[in-house]
Amino acid sequence: MHQKVRNPTGVRTLVPAxxxxxxxxxxxxxxxxxxxxxxxxxALAWVVIAASIVGMVVQYLAAKLGAATGLSLAENCRxxxxxxxxxxxxxxxxxxxxxxxxxxxVGGAFALNILFGVPLLVGAVIVGAVSFVVLAxxxxxxxxxxxxxxxxxxxxxxxxxxxxxxxxxxxxxxATEIAPGPMEPSAALLAAGIVGATVMPHALHFQSAVCRPVxxxxxxxxxxxxxxxxxxxxxxxxxxxxxxxxxxxVVGLANVAIVLAAAVLPESAxxxxxxxxxxxxxxxxxxxxxxxxxALLASGxxxxxxxxxTGQVVxxxxxxRSYTVWVRRVVSLAPxxxxxxxxxxxxxxxxxxxxxxSFAAPTSLIPLVLFTRRRAVMGDLVNRPLTTWVAGAxxxxxxxxxxxxxxxxx
Length: 410
Fold this sequence. Notes:
transport; mainly alpha; transmembrane helix
């Protein structure tokens, strides 16, 4: 069943932007932000802020690409890249989807374990099953899908902000530690995880897909023309930009709040979300600990649904093949469940999955910047030179950070 999407204007651009923003406050963010705060206090908060700004820029480009071409980022890669490049981009993007599924399932499973004592593997299966239920709402065209996901997003944001208020912030210490400075290898590894969790390459594919002014597919493909060459391009660009800035500012604030709240924890709480939950209870009281667990659960449920939709967009875009969303979901859930069944360190896997996303990010950012700078592709929605320069510089800095981390680990 197809669902019509009008040309994005005004408030109609805010809902897709908020849906994409769900990916920026998923359990992967919790994992790296809690470990950053517990291990380094406020010292890496600036990385979260900088990565959130980069996320705003590239999400805006992804929204424009979908609006201008009527194609998702994956479809644009298929249409405009050579065969070998297209295959490599697809494989890396599939790895990104698997890593995000891992983070989402592990995060939700951790929350169920903390709150109700459910074993991690069983919790992951429950989270996966819930995602099937919500996807059924989406496939059948019910408006409740967006309402549910956005309600979960609101729950996450409110919970982490209130938790930070309860935990308290040492303003004098924050002013001293937040300035950027040299990073030791372990801090750089966490910084890469923050970048992967905050720039989040799979969200670019989602944003470009939901901003298409054409029928959007749930289980079968459809294509159409964009709006970039028609009238009102300046208004469309303004509305897209405003919506992305609003949505990304909210989740960026929430991510910074997680770091600030975790900064009150002892270093022993880093590397284990269960230990962080217990430490929140000891340091800030039971209410703060429960808010942490509830926010983690809500983020896992919301992001796993968005991730499932993104996986479908990626496969249809790169391969032009329409597998049902159910088959696609089973395939993408299998690797994370196998890893959990093998008994891996779940929190460590959560953090490392975000580092993988940082290393994979340039494979989405580079084509996105190249496409959106070309008037032949974008029409009147083409980037301004400054926009291209900022996005290009951010991509280079991410590559440089990844190279530093790689050299430090070798």
